[in-house]
Amino acid sequence: MSRAPAQLPLGVGLRDDATFESFLPAGNATLLDRLSRQLDEDGEPFLFLWGASGSGRSHLLQAACHAASDRDLRALYLPLHDLGHFPPLMLEDVERLDLVAIDDVDDVIGRRRWEEGLFHAFNRLRDAGKRLVMSASAAPRQLPVALPDLASRLTWGVTFQLQRLDDSERLQALQLRARIRGMQLSEEVARYILHRGPRRLDELFDELAVLDRASLSAQRKLTIPFVKQALGW
């Protein structure tokens, strides 16, 4: 993370490959544009992203934090799926940051202390003129929020639903991620991986990382026989 205050120790490290450049826009081009410009002077103060698990929500929130760091700004990434079992103390003093990215907010909805913590953090960020981006598996109005004031705040921002990639776009996304890793992934091999591999893109990308390490170690090109051997297919 980029110079987060010492009072905020629970921020989670970012994946190096979670950048805007490694995300295929496809049907999410408008969302990607708004999110990449959120830290501009005329950027949106609050963005809310929602979509199914594996749709790229976490990738984009981490990418936003990477982009803030690249601009020498302070950002904090909070995946509540991992941190929601803690009390919401990590929300204190967030207005000292330039961007706060809160992932999986639906994991704490319905819990009084967390809802109150989110409500007050939202207000402090707004009053300080800072930026906030949240994600969940459902749209704000579909979340069973118990605190009416928080329910109201969640609808204040610009909301985007992440659009799923079709099979052709999934192929492009896999090849894009391979190029960024410096891998030569032919369309034939990419189609084989898509056919045999997991359905979720994040899991496919994890398989790609395994192949990258295996090919470097063995000094082998990515062929279908090598993919079978390296992944145990």
UniProtKB/TrEMBL annotation:
SUPFAM superfamilies, per the entry: P-loop containing nucleoside triphosphate hydrolases
Signal peptide: none
Alphabetical list of InterPro entries matching this protein: DnaA_dom, Hda, Hda_lid, P-loop_NTPase
Domain Chromosomal replication initiator protein DnaA ATPAse: 94-160
Domain spans labelled Hda lid: 167-231
Top-level lineage group: Bacteria
Protein's name according to its UniProt entry: DnaA regulatory inactivator Hda
Organism ancestry: Bacteria, Pseudomonadati, Pseudomonadota, Gammaproteobacteria, Oceanospirillales
